Write the structure tokens for this entry.
Amino acid sequence: MTLGALILILAAAFIHASWNLLNKRASGHVTFTWLVAVLSAIFYTPVAVAVIFLTRLEIGVVELGLMAGSAALHSAYFILLNQGYRIGDLSLVYPLARGTGPLLSTIAAILLLGERPSALALAGALLIICGVVVITGSPKSLRGSVKTAVLYAAVTGLFIAAYTLWDKQAVSRFAVPPLILDWGSNLGRTIFLTSLPARYPRETRVEWREHRFEAIGVAVLAPLSYILVLTAMQFTPVSYVAPAREISILIGTAMGTRLLAEGDGPRRLIAASAMVLGVVALAVG
């Protein structure tokens, strides 16, 4: 992994953890997800239009299909993640969701894309994953709402793996610019989730009134963090990028235990710190 890719991924990790903190603080209705999609599409439209105009980018059927697929996967991801935050802690849901994703995406990249990471890189990925397992706690603690939150987080991880592989192909094989792919995905999410405000008009108004700041923050930071990751994916294998970006687990866990005063702080922070070693192994490998 190059130094440039590592810098992009670490910056994306901090931004990613920050918007998840805002998302957790909102813990809003499902319509919160639609609000974020709409705001993201609006905020990034001027930049996207400028990129299309200046580069004379042609968006055909293939590009539209890639954006639509990304939008579908991200729609499910955001809805599941939001539901997990409504039930469980940030320092539980976030690391589990983020840990499941790279595990599956790394395995899939090896099996489906033919990537061959080094033994040191694989050891780093394994260390990150082991840290995630420790953060979630013992099986005896998985009861009631905690169990439900863990299930939401695990399924969220499946969609993280799916959109990581899908978007990797879009930006590398089909050369769709990262910003354009993410912008098109946000437009698609806006369309796919349009029925939500129609079904829940009162809840939509409440979300905008009570969680306006959080929605704006997530709408700005979520695309920015992912655009940085997609940029790194253009010249770095998925099996390196996906696990390395999970340094955000350490940042998110620290935010949850310190800023939100969630329980099991020392254990979760120690386990998350082990992931830093995994990132170093990935970078060296």
User: Anything to note?
Assistant: The chain has one domain: 3-284.
